Amino acid sequence: MTMPAARTDNGAASGFRPEMSLAEALSFLTRTLIEAGLDTPQRDARFLMQGLLGLDGAQLLSGSGRPLGDAASLLSDAAARRAAHEPVSRILGRRAFYGRDFIVTPDVLDPRPDTEVVVELALDLIKGRGLAEAPLSIADIGTGSGILIVTLLTELANARGLATDISPAALAVARRNAEALGVADRIQFVATTGLDGCSGPFDLVISNPPYISTEEIAGLEPDVKDFDPVLALDGGDDGLRVYRDIARNIMELQASCLMVLEIGATQAEAVEDIFSKSGAQPIGRRQDLGGHTRAVALEIHL
Fold it and tell me: Which long-range contacts (CB under 8 A, 24 or more apart) does 125-134 make?
């Protein structure tokens, strides 16, 4: 007897049944996401099945005849959530970044692959100056999930960090990621705006601040506007408010340091101008995979 299709919360028949093979489930999930109008349905379907079933790509293929069993309900839920544009990383609760897995929750920005250029540019500057083994002090402003500071400390064994965020819930996620990757004992977590109340000196300041203008948020893709915290997106009227705050912090600290910042695709000159007024010299830019300038490096001498 054919089993009735499972039903999702939105009332749509999911079609996933315990006796369905992995291959059949992957095909059905892919078709479901295609019908939902998603940009990368094949990739999303594959990542969801691998993540939910604990399989790698080879295992998914080699076990394609295996029945779904109890995983049918998991896939039903995941299919409905992804069809509603919830990002794969949020469904799975983790995101791969710079070769490592990071916990993500609704309290933090979903890390993008483009943000890896911030890490690359920072490491190039540090290694180019022969500082890879130095006991560096690194500040990460608006740390979110902690991807920047945690990644840098895993790459720089003798460095220590300060991670700030206005959201205590985000700091809790960052701490979990630091613990999972073995660097929590080298990071101080502080709930504050920017570097308010913090003391330097810092050798390197990094940040992926909110840089989308308030007006533009409503026009963002559903994957972003409906699931990322507004605090992590809204950069004020012109998208540059937080950069001005960071520049003010640096002036108040009277700190000479290197700085690497993620920026919006058209903001390089505006951000460099803000920091030039604070005594900073632009020393580098880095493009993302789409060819947009995504990070700027500055050196501050005060």
Answer: 125/204, 125/258, 125/260, 125/283, 125/284, 125/297, 126/156, 126/204, 126/258, 131/203, 132/156, 133/157, 133/158, 134/158, 134/159, 134/203
Q: Return the axis-axis angle of helices 22-35 and 71-83, rounded to nearest 10°.
A: 20
Lowest mean pLDDT among 25-39, 128-142, 227-241, 243-257: 243-257
Closest-CA residue to 274 (of 302, 240, 236): 240
Mean pLDDT of 92-110: 95
pLDDT recorded at residue 130: 96
Specify the DSSP element, H or E, that contains 224: helix 222-225
CA distance 94 to 176: 12
Residue for token digits 């912090």?
Answer: 249
pLDDT in tens, 218-252: 999 999 999 999 999 999 999 999 999 999 888 88
Q: Please state the pTM of the whole predicted model.
A: 0.89
Q: What one-character DSSP code corresponds to residue 21?
A: B
Q: Environment class of residue 170 by beta-carbon count within 10 Å: exposed (0-12), middle (13-18) or buried (19+)?
A: buried
